[in-house]
Request: fold
Amino acid sequence: MQFLTIQRILGILLGLFSLSLLPPIAVSLFYQDGSTEAFVTAFFLLLVTGFVFWFPVRQHRKELKVRDGFLVVVMFWVTLGLSGAVPFFLTQVPEMSFTDAVFESVSGLTTTGATVLTGLDHLPEAVLFYRQFLQWLGGMGIVVLAVAILPLLGVGGMQLYRAETPGPMKDAKLTPRITETAKALWYIYLTLTVLCSVAFYFAGMSWFDAVGHSFSTVAIGGFSTHDASIGYFDSALIEMVAVFFMLLSGMNFSLHFLAWRHRSVRHYWADSELRTYLLILVTISIVTATYLKFTQTFDDPWTAIHQGIFQAVSIGTTTGFTTTDYYLWPGFLPILLLMASYIGGCAGSTGGGIKVIRVMLLFKQGYREVLRLIHPNAIIAIKVNNKALPSKIVGAVWGFFALYVFCFSFMHLLLMSTGLDIVTSFSAVTACLNNLGPGLGEVGANYGGINAPSKWVLCIAMLLGRLEIFTLLVVLTPAFWKR
Reply:
C-alpha cells in the first residue's frame, strides 16, 4: 500500500473540496444573510487541513495500485462527509448538532436528499445554496472531477475512476485517456445543469431557485430550497421540466456522450437498458395516475396524471422531489413507489438503486434457469444489446445483490433495535441505501425526529449506496490488508 502517496492525494482532494465553500461565501456576501463567518472559517479550516496532509509528502508520486484506489475513495468520502458538515455545524441558523450536521452533509454528497432540516424557506440563502451545491458535486463524484482537472495526481487515475464510478461494466472508457473520459462526463453534466437552470427559470422559478433545483435535479439528489419541495411552486410546467431532466440524468451518461460525438440519437433506442428503464417508469406512471383517479385522490384527471407521472419519475429515478405527501396516498401506491427506487437509474448515471442493468441481468439469469429446467443440455447465453456477457459479470451482479440484501437486512434490524417501528426502519434503510431520500412513517417528511444512533447507521447506508457496496466493504475485508 502506498500510504504516503494516498496521504498526498487526500490532501489535494481535501484542498480541492475546500474551494467548494467559495460559492456559498459569495452568495452569503451578496444576500448579506449573516452566515459569511461560518463559511469563511470552514473554508480556511479545510484548506489548512488539506495543506497539512499534503505538504510533508508532496514529493511522493508512486503509482497507485487497485487497492490504493479503493482506499483513497473510501477514505475521501468518509472525510468528505465529515468535512462537509463543518459549515452546518458552525452556522448559527440553523443550529445543528454534530450528528445532524454530518447526516445532512453525507445526504447531500451522496445525493440521497434525506434531510433533518425544517423551515427551509427561512434559512440563510448561503446555507440553502450550499446544500444544493453539495448534491451537485456528489452527483458525478468529486473524485472523478479530481481525475479530470488534476493531472498532477499522476498515474493511477484509472484506479480512482474504477473505484468511484458506479455500475457493473465500469471498465469501459469513452475516450482513450481516463482524464479525457472524466472531462467528457463533466462537460455533459455541466451542460445539462445549465440547460435545466434556464428551463426552470423560464418555467417560473427565480434564478436562485432555478440554479439550486437544477443542481439537485441533474444530480438526482432531491434537496430543495423550500419545505414543500417542487410542490411549493404549484406549477405543472415546472414539474414537467423536472421530469424531463430527471429522465435524462437517470440515463447512462455514455449515451449522452455518443449523441454529442456522433450528432445522432439513434443509439438511445438501441440500448436495451434504456428501453427497460423507460418501460418501467412509464408503467409505474400509468399505474400511479390511474389509481389516483380511481380512488378520487384528485378530482381533476389532469392533476392525477401529472402528479402520478411526477412522483413516479421522481421516486423511480431516486431523485426524491415531492409535490405532495405521497406517503399518505391510498392503497399500495406508497409501497409501489418505494419499491421502484430499488431499481433506480441506469448504470453510469447519477441515479441510485440497484441499477436497471443489474435488474435486467438478474431477470435474464432467472429466466435462463427456468429454460435449463426444460432443456437441461442447452447452452443459453445472457445477452445485452445482442452481445453475450462474460460469466464474471453475471457472477458479480449476483454477488452485489447478495451483499445488498445482507446489508439491508442487517441495517433494518439495527434501526428497529434503536426503537424505530418496522415501517419507519424499513423505508429509512430503503431510502438511504438507494440514495432516494423521503421514506414512510416517521421519515416521510424528514429525518429530524429519529434518534442519533439511527442517523449514523443511515449515514453508512448512504455511503454504501453511493459507492455501490463493494467499494466500501472491500476495505473492511482482511484479505484487502494482506500483502
